[in-house]
Specification:
With about 290 residues, the protein is of the alpha+beta class. The protein starts with a strand and ends with a strand. It is built from 10 helices and 17 strands. The strands form 3 sheets. It has an 8-stranded mixed β-sheet. A 7-stranded mixed β-sheet has the order 10-11-12-13-14-15-16, with helices on one face. A two-stranded antiparallel sheet has the order 6-7. It is globular. The longest helix has 15 residues. The chain is about 25% helix and about 30% strand. The chain has a single domain, classed as Metallo-beta-lactamase, Chain A (4-Layer Sandwich). The structure holds zinc ion. InterPro entries: MBL_superfamily_lactonases, Metallo-B-lactamas, RibonucZ/Hydroxyglut_hydro.
């Protein structure tokens, strides 16, 4: 299990799945041949994130941010028992909750849930199926949803017809556990949302600061380090591709200060590193991550 220490804060990755993904799934205009051409321009991508056959190594995981006072789950993966059009995500039966327990975080101990946005692979474990009903998985947690994100998806059907809002968001609201918050909401002393819209209308990243150390959890404003190498590539899932592109340029400029540990929401292991600007592009340097503890 991957774990990082930022001052007094411990961040633990709880994986749901790790897989090889076709580049066309994320980027309709990029086939395997084109991905190899991109990676040949940025050979560091071959270390962990792109195979020599032109596939992307991706991960779906939750990050538990433990400040000592708060235990915050950031993004809740796909979840079990959910009916989904994507065959690889339909009716999953994983041992995700056992992994949370094994990491020292039983669901009752979680104080907050943050969803960077309300897409299928970020809200799934918000709820679980008990006696035919969707109930909150984390019964003692406040679930923080950015207000514009919640309002958008409460009025907008998902592209593939999955009823994600009804099975994974609305039951939280109905149980009185939802808090609709601004895009820069603070959570305790060490955690603050950082607006990174474009992928969705109310998308946020999550900033962690403690004792002069800092980290950021990307969410899907960047799906893969391929977009760190070439920030111009917007994903086919971005609701506003031009805004998403602008957001990446601005965020990478902020995060490449040499001090910020960038933790990817879908980056394959080792998942985190520091951004280094090289010319017009960036490198995710996973070797200088002195905080990483495997
Ligand atoms: Zn995602």
């Amino acid at each position: 299990m991957l774990r990082w220490t930022i001052g007094d804060v411990r961040i633990t990755s709880v994986p749901e799945s790790e897989s090889l993904t076709s580049p066309r799934f994320l980027f309709p205009d990029v086939d395997k041949k084109k991905l190899i051409q991109i990676a040949d321009r940025h050979p560091w991508l071959y270390d962990h994130f792109v195979t020599d056959k032109g596939m992307m190594r991706q991960k779906i995981h939750a990050l538990v941010v433990d400040t000592g006072k708060e235990r915050i789950v950031v993004d809740t993966c796909i979840g079990n028992d959910k009916k989904r059009h994507n065959k690889g995500w339909n009716n999953l039966q994983t041992d995700f909750l056992s992994k949370m327990n094994a990491a020292g975080y039983p669901p009752e101990s979680i104080t907050h849930v943050i969803c960077t946005h309300l897409h299928v692979d970020h809200v799934g474990w918000n709820t679980r199926l008990v006696g035919g009903k969707w109930v909150p998985t984390f019964p003692n947690a406040k679930y923080l949803f950015a207000k514009p994100e919640f309002e958008h998806w409460s009025q907008t059907a998902y592209a593939d017809g999955d009823d994600i809002f009804s099975d994974s968001v609305k039951p939280i609201y109905d149980a009185g556990l939802a808090q609709l918050v601004p895009l820069d909401c603070k959570v305790g002393e060490c955690v603050q949302l950082e607006p990174t819209t474009g992928h969705t209308p109310g998308h946020v990243s999550v900033r962690i600061r403690s004792r002069g150390k800092t980290a950021v959890i990307t969410g899907d404003m960047t799906h893969t380090p391929v977009q760190i190498a070439e920030p111009g590539y917007s994903s086919g899932f971005d609701s506003d591709p031009e805004k998403a592109r602008q957001t990446r340029h601005e965020a990478f400029a902020r995060w490449s200060d040499g001090a910020t540990l960038v933790i990817g929401t879908h980056f394959a292991t080792p998942t985190a590193g520091r951004l280094v600007k090289v010319g017009d592009a960036y490198v995710l340097d996973t070797k200088i991550d002195e905080n990483a503890k495997l």
